[in-house]
Amino acid sequence: MSAAQPHATDFLGHPKGLFVCFFTEMWERFSFYGMKALLLLYILKYHLFADDAGYDLLGAYGGLVYAVPVIGGLLADRYLGMRKAVVLGGVLLVLGHIGMAFEGEQARIVDGVVVRDEAALQVFYLSLALIIMGVGFLKPNISTIVGRLYPKNDPRLDSGFTLFYAGINVGAMFASLVCAFLGETYGWKYGFGAAGIGMIAGLVMFIWGQKYLLGHAEPNDPALLREKVGPLSREWLIYLGSVGGVLLVWQLIQRTWTVHGAMHLIALAFVGWFIWFLVKKCSKVEREQMIALVVLIVGVLVFFTLYEQTYGSWVTFTDRMLTKDLFGQVAGDYVPTLPWAIYSLGLSPVLMIAALMASDKGRDGLAKGLVGLLVLGLVVAITHDVVLVPQTAGSLTFLGAFFIVILSPVFAWLWPWLEKRGMNPSKPAKMAIGLVAAGLAFLPMIAAADAASSGVMASVWWLVLAYFILEIGEMCLSPIGLSAVTQLSVARVVGLMMGAFWLATAYSEVLAAQFGKLASIDRVEGQAIDMAQAGATYSHLFEIMLWVGVGSGLLFLVLSPLVKRWMHGIK
What we know:
Mean pLDDT is 87; it is low at 1-7. Helix 4 (82-100) packs antiparallel against helix 5 (118-148), helix 4 (82-100) runs antiparallel to helix 7 (188-208) and helix 10 runs antiparallel to helix 20 (494-516). It contains 21 helices and six strands. Strand 3 (108-110) and strand 4 (113-115) form a beta hairpin. By secondary structure, it is mainly alpha-helical.
């Protein structure tokens, strides 16, 4: 590499392509989490689904969102290349979010029967299918591009991924504050529409920034893509197949039992294959490492079964039984205004593009100043929106990403500090700590449910405390996961085990929905809920989640020395 090249291709110590991926993923997560924060409330309040049906749909959607990327990643690796896959995913996502903005007529009750706008519901299901397929093509491949931007063994890679994941959490945090607030305050279509505009911004940013990806996102074998398969090239056959996939998911998402049933069958099939592979194809060391890996994957599954209550039972509980105003700054006659985040987010891609262009011309001082202005705008916006804008049940889901942003630097310092002193917990021990923390996060929710049982809304600060404890658990779990798959899996099945990891995450969504249904409440339209009965119902679910988390965490703690031995020196 010549002395001139780093100046031309790097910015703030990292490849410029990292910042293109950062903003693409930030906007994709903004659109995804903005929609997710609204989804359950929308189908319960606008389409008048019963709680059970709402949780089932949420579980099926979440399961498919994490399962389809296994296929999208495979097609990109073998044929499409990451650039084409990301653009395809982005286009599908934009179409999906545009469709979500179509509300149709609100459901109503006529003679005790719910009458829904069936045409609008079909548009809704089709939009979910487009979003599911879009995430499947975009999400796994944008991460792969980041890895390819760095030379082999580049020491900057870890910090590059840290920056990239910060983009995920910034997108998730602002998604709730903007999309959920707009949807619940002004109308569902405005929240979903804002998510769609965010995805358009991400797609434009990605297409504009192609030159900074330096060809790393291109297909491995372009000739293979051009090759005819029947009347069509392989590339167009994949595009046609993605449309077919959308149509298939469109039907599946309306029959949630098929998705849930398929997840159970896939889990059973994997267990059968895994036992066969251990017995027939592994040496003693390989067998023990694979068992250790599956134990860790099961831990991740349990953790996210608990975590996904944040978009299920925690949202309905917040909506029905908690106050929403965090700081008491919102007066009773407050007229809602637009969150400042809309303006700061809208300017952020413009400022980033201007910064990269200034860097291209060697004007590094100006480039850094523009980035500083961008960060300052986001900080001012979130401060205003959290303190002075009235929160809603959906917008309060921002707390998860907020605490990740706050805690990440702490844990980034903590693990190396412990490592130097020989005190850094092993992967199984971190898993145990994370699971116990996830379980303990339900203690404040139990306290809130008991307080609200008196008939008065419980304080929102119980929710804040619950999120804080939960995210400590996630910080303990975050070093585990994909790295464990690459380190512990037998090399010849690492792709399959990576798929198993994502399918376990998908399965956790299905399980989370089944647990969430324990807190289902039969509501009569136009009547207030029985707070005492609702409090007892939610408290029952939260107690189960408490013991699932703490119990599994203690089990992992007991097993951690054995699992560590099975890892055979892998840290």
